[in-house]
Amino acid sequence: MTSPSALISDARKAAACGNLLESTVANIESFLGGQSDPVALESVRELLDTANWAELNDRFFRTLAFGTGGLRGRSIGRTVTHAERGTPLPNGRPEFPCTGTNALNDFNMARATRGLVEYVLEWWGSRAGRPAVVIAHDTRHFSREFAMLCAQVASDLGCEVHLFESARSTPELSFAVRQLRAQAGIVLTASHNPPHDNGFKCYFEDGAQVVEPHASGIIARVNALTSDRYAPLPPTQRGTVHSIGSELDRAYMDRLATLVLDPDRARPASDLRIVFSPIHGTGGVIVPPMLERLGFSFTTVESQEIPDGRFPTVKSPNPENAEALSLALALAEVERADLVLATDPDCDRMGAAIRNSRGDMQLLTGNQIGSLLAYYRTRKLFEQGVLTDANRHRAVLIKTFVTTDLQKAIADHLGVRCVETLTGFKYIGEKLTKYEHALPPEARQDYVTRSEAETRSLRLAHSIFYICGGEESYGYSGADFVRDKDGNGAVVMFAEIAGWAKGRGMTLDQVLDEIYTSCGFHWEKNAALTFEGAEGSAKIRHLAASYAATPPKVADGTAVSSFRDFAREDIQDSEGDLVPKESMLMVDLADGRRFAVRPSGTEPKIKYYLFGRRIPTAGQALAAAELVRAKSEVPAALDALWAWLQEDAHIRLG
């Protein structure tokens, strides 16, 4: 077997010739020190022998950093070594994950779990018993193996572990953390990333992804670890791994059913037809039985019901893309369905297409879906007398800064508040935890076990009632029993809206026009520049630094009227809470357009969010002819702005 010292020597020679980065060699040395895994050793040897410098640099130029969202990276390399391929598996997956410090593999999974558990144990302190961790995983390559490894590490180090028996969605993990009174949660997923990726996301006892002060503590713990090796506790001090499944499914579905605000009117038309696809992911566990329980008529895309980490029927398992919905759209034409709904692999996002007033299937944007949810649910709660003039000040919609301003306009029009957060549902989860903690101590007792009606009454009487919220990136929620975006819940809520609209004799695009008429036409364009690997990472950092140092004064021929630098300025939200620092620049133009720029925290991209609008004169509705013109002129103005931004980025990169 190849010795680590020989590999390190060859890597140093390659660096001396300019083939490998110094950081690559340093990480190879650290990784191989004491390494005995033959797959790791033989993989590095093959890449050195074949002079595959680009692959080595991508795998080792850094140690995958644990951020506020956890870890995300490749579990399958661009080049799969002979040792990694191992024994061929039925789905074509390599037998072993990608070797490297900048990859999702046993090395980084063990580091992440150990760091999280060490923090939780310190936070738990001298309390009796053991802290508990809930672990779930999606259908991606290596997800089950990673989940079992995380369970072993956590139990070896003294935690009780609740491990889902098979693939489950991210929102059910969030629900389970609260339901089981656990102190932390882990879900193995890379959301809608390509098949070669996987990830590690961690949650705290409130069921939300970690935020400060816990985030910094966990990050510091994980990133200080340079080895995946650890010493298990004596057997009597270790925790137990408990298998969970159907009992949590039933409890979760019972709460999902409460998202339907008006069960009798949600399905007035018996011919409402839905096509659903889980796109080979975890949505197939909960959504079909949930739709059946609620009495909706639906058909599933049979070929996409099969859990498969290759996602073989789509180019990308991202339900915001038309291509990912192509099979569902084709089935909708055969079935003459009114609605297509699809969820991503870990079922925290939902995409939708509707049959519009012309009889065609129309893909909705994430902003449109969220706006329909906000409009219908706020309006319905007022109609039902749940919201009144006396308590409307306690009701909020929550959205991110880069989500459409139409939702702010809806809140203003219907007389409730709108709160904005940074991108990332963890910040919406943080708000929900804040609202729970604002309840009197006696009201917080057994909060998790109280019914939805009880908690809603408590929040309306003593704190803040969350109507619904979401992100432009197809993530939504409608209650606080889940503290993350919830594709299962989104399907339930949107199916109700479709039934309500059909009962009014309307299509959902007509409902959107109803909203535009009263609240103004808002349109958005989301785009990104992708830069992969070590070189790409440097370009993203350069662009972000350039925007911060020299923000534009003119964009697409229009003067910049204002800008906000979220990394440098102290910015408060509408509730007076200080917004955490983040690398994001928000730029307003004199003609009413605006755009935001931020590096992605989970993908090798720098993201751009463009906004345009045509609003009516105060106190008036937008005229029909003006709405028609706006639907043409506003998107065209954003296309022009995007063309300018691409050219400007090219100039900034030199």
Structural commentary:
- With 654 residues, this protein is of the alpha/beta class.
- It has four domains: 97-244, Alpha-D-Glucose-1,6-Bisphosphate, subunit A, domain 3 (Alpha-D-Glucose-1,6-Bisphosphate, Chain A, domain 3), CATH 3.40.120.10; 252-368, Alpha-D-Glucose-1,6-Bisphosphate, Chain A, domain 3, CATH 3.40.120.10; 373-487, Alpha-D-Glucose-1,6-Bisphosphate, subunit A, domain 3 (Alpha-D-Glucose-1,6-Bisphosphate, Chain A, domain 3, 3-Layer(aba) Sandwich), CATH 3.40.120; 520-653, TATA-Binding Protein.
- It is 41% helix and 18% strand.
- It is built from 22 helices and 21 strands.
- The chain has a six-stranded mixed sheet with strand order 1-5-4-2-3-6, with helices on both faces.
- Strand 14 and strand 15 (475-477) form a beta hairpin.
- Helix 1 runs antiparallel to helix 2 (22-32) and helix 1 (4-16) packs parallel to helix 3 (38-49).
- The longest helix has 30 residues, at 624-653.
- The radius of gyration is 25 Å and the shape is globular.
